[in-house]
Design brief:
alpha+beta; Arc Repressor Mutant, subunit A; three-stranded antiparallel sheet; three-stranded mixed sheet; globular
C-alpha cells in the first residue's frame, strides 16, 4: 500500500471504496457500504489514512467527510489548500482543486497552521438539471 501504510483487509477495502468515489464521503457512508463492519475499525482506518497523507478531512456543519489527497501530501503534511464545495441540492461535497486561492497575507508575527476553504451552493450537475 502506498504512503507506507501497513495493509490490512479493512484498509484495502476502504481504500478501494474511496478510489471509486467522485465526492467526499463520511464515516457513515463508508460504514453503510460494508454490510458488516466495525465502526471503530473504520474510524481508525480513516485516521491512519489521514495521518499518513492519503486522505484529508473536510469539516462540514455536523459531519466530517473524507476525500483522497494528491500524491504531494505526506505524513503530517497536507497540501489540500483548495476549495471544498458542498451542493445544497444533491448533498455532495467535492474538491475543486482548479479554483485559484491566492495565499493569505497576514500581519507580522501571525503564523498560519491550517486554512480550510469551504463553500455552499449548487453544483454544476444540479444546476444543469434545473435548467432542463
Amino acid at each position: 500500500m502506498r504512503k507506507k501504510i501497513t495493509p490490512t483487509a479493512m484498509r484495502i477495502l476502504t481504500l478501494e471504496f474511496l478510489l471509486e468515489q467522485s465526492a467526499a464521503v463520511s464515516l457513515t457512508d463508508i460504514e453503510n457500504h460494508f454490510f458488516r463492519s466495525d465502526r471503530i475499525t473504520l474510524y481508525r482506518t480513516l485516521k491512519t489514512f489521514e495521518q499518513k497523507g492519503l486522505i484529508h478531512s473536510i469539516q462540514e456543519t455536523n459531519t466530517t467527510k473524507y476525500s483522497l489527497c494528491k500524491d504531494s501530501c505526506g505524513e503530517g503534511t497536507h497540501n489540500d489548500n483548495h476549495l471544498h464545495f458542498y451542493c445544497v441540492q444533491c448533498k455532495e461535497t467535492v474538491c475543486l482543486e482548479h479554483v485559484d486561492l491566492s495565499p493569505v497575507m497576514l500581519p507580522p508575527n501571525f503564523e498560519v497552521q491550517q486554512i480550510r476553504f469551504f463553500a455552499k451552493g449548487v453544483c454544476n450537475k444540479c444546476s444543469r438539471q434545473t435548467m432542463q
